[in-house]
Design brief:
It is built from 18 helices and 20 strands. The chain is of the alpha/beta class. The strands form 4 sheets. It has a 7-stranded mixed sheet, with helices on both faces. Strands 15, 16, 17, 18, 19 and 20 form a 6-stranded parallel sheet that branches. The radius of gyration is 25 Å and the shape is elongated.
Length: 459
């Protein structure tokens, strides 16, 4: 797979100087990060972006490992024949119009695969958006260059997606709000040849990747996937598309995928210790939390025991209401913990879980109250994780994350924050919390869902 991730020479078939075109975006993205030889291919032009343009791949004079193909589907077989003549090792077919459109497209896709196999070429795609490696940065994709340039944020989470969406607008949205950083984004589309298992194996050995996320509509080799996932030392998060009959039908028209029996797939993924998500943002919320080294944890017996620290009795109750579906229970705080928490709370307010600490906050100020409560709850052996509610306001309510978490020592238990308040103050609190390694959310149900994902389920 190295010639996809570190190619010596790249050709772009379908390159064009036309503004706002995918063929131009591909070239611009390549020139901004890739340092090897770049060869535009289009018989209409002599030069594009100052690069010599070739009429066909076989006429390129120079090293060429990878060919990115962005021409109409019916023209692709002829391009592949030419790639065989040149000795290209891999191609990324980013054009659509193959198996996802019906029988004729499927026949065309099979024709392309037969040509590639005869010539010893590996196919990535078709119907995909290619590869992005943020650290280098390599952008082997037709995503809009300005959008990607403004959003790109290197990090330790890698994606394998059977879609173009996740390497397009969704990824740009995620990186743009500084919620997480990404390492490698592999959009594999119809996965006619290169599929999830080879990429999963590659990423489990990739030192730049700590957490692996997959959006898949089908599994090419379920047994091999199970073997790789169950033996992985890195957390794996999967969002399965096509869970329902209507979703399965939609997935076939998207990437020509047969979704399979979801209940069976869900059980297999659970046995492989794969964390399962229900939507795109949830998948990334789980991943960015696991990336903080809150890897899957085992509890001694029973369900994970969670403490809720809040300034509002109502939000504490709502948080508790969400816990049961995710296999969580309220922790029964130890007598020592109750006694220590009571030190800052007035006598008329007995401490229980959820810990409504508003009287203590009102009496001692939010900074001291949160610091004291977080340190105390984190040290309680009866607590496996903590959900904290914070209001980011003005004055004393603009909290310093380092200060309120300074008492949390030793092996870190999961501490997740639900944060509300004016947007400017919320961001001023959220970003330092995230930078210090404490995931922060704006929705209670999402906070609880992510907490539940951090603990191994029995069976």
């Amino acid at each position: 797979m190295d010639f996809f991730f570190e190619p010596n020479g790249i050709a772009v078939v379908g390159a064009t100087p036309e503004p706002q075109s995918g063929g131009l975006n591909l070239l611009v993205n390549l020139t901004r990060g890739y340092k090897g030889p770049i060869f535009p291919v289009n018989p209409k032009y002599n030069h594009i972006l100052g690069l010599k343009c070739y009429p066909r791949v076989s006429e390129i004079n120079g090293p060429l490992d990878l060919c990115i193909i962005f021409v109409p589907a019916k023209a692709v077989p002829r391009v592949l024949e030419d790639c065989v003549l040149k000795g290209v090792r891999g191609v990324m077919i980013e054009s659509g119009g193959f198996a996802e459109v019906g029988p004729d497209g499927k026949a065309l896709q099979e024709q392309c695969l037969a040509i590639a196999r005869r010539g010893g070429i590996r196919i990535w795609g078709p119907n995909c958006m290619g590869l992005i490696d943020t650290a280098k940065p390599y952008i082997f994709s037709f995503v809009i260059p300005k959008d990607m340039e403004e959003a790109i944020r290197p990090g330790p989470i890698s994606l394998i997606v059977q879609s173009g969406l996740l390497s397009g607008g969704f990824i740009i949205t995620l990186m743009g709000n500084k919620t997480l950083g990404l390492s490698k984004i592999c959009s594999i589309g119809n996965k006619s040849d290169v599929a999830e298992n080879e990429l999963l194996e590659f990423l489990t050995d990739d030192p730049a990747t700590k957490v692996i996320c997959l959006y898949l509509e089908s599994f090419m080799n379920g047994r091999r996937f199970f073997e790789l996932a169950s033996s992985s030392k890195k957390p794996i998060v999967v969002l399965k598309g096509g869970k329902t009959p209507s979703g399965a039908k939609a997935s076939f028209s998207h990437t020509a995928s047969l979704a399979g029996d979801y209940e069976l797939i869900k059980g297999i993924l659970r046995q492989a210790r794969v964390v399962q998500a229900d939507d795109f943002f949830e998948m990334m919320d789980i991943a960015r939390t696991l990336e903080k080294n809150f890897y899957l944890r085992r509890v001694r017996a029973g369900k994970p025991r969670i403490a809720i620290l809040t300034y509002s009795g109502a939000s504490g109750i709502v948080t508790a209401d969400h816990m049961d579906p995710y296999g969580l229970i309220l922790a029964d705080l130890s007598p020592q913990t109750r006694k220590r928490l009571q030190e800052l709370s007035p006598d008329w307010m007995p401490v229980k879980n959820p810990v409504d600490y508003w009287p203590a906050i009102e009496k001692n100020g939010p900074s001291l109250a949160y610091k004291h409560a977080l340190e105390t709850l984190h040290e309680d052996p009866e607590v496996d994780g903590i959900i904290v509610h914070i209001y980011a306001g003005h004055g004393i309510w603009l909290l310093n994350p380092k200060e309120i978490l300074s008492g949390v020592k030793g092996s870190r238990k999961p501490i997740l924050f639900w944060l509300i308040g004016p947007e400017k103050n919320r961001e001023a609190t959220r970003l330092p919390l995230e930078e210090e390694g404490w995931p922060t959310f704006h929705e209670i149900h999402r906070t609880v869902r992510v907490m539940g994902s951090l603990f191994e389920k029995p069976g």
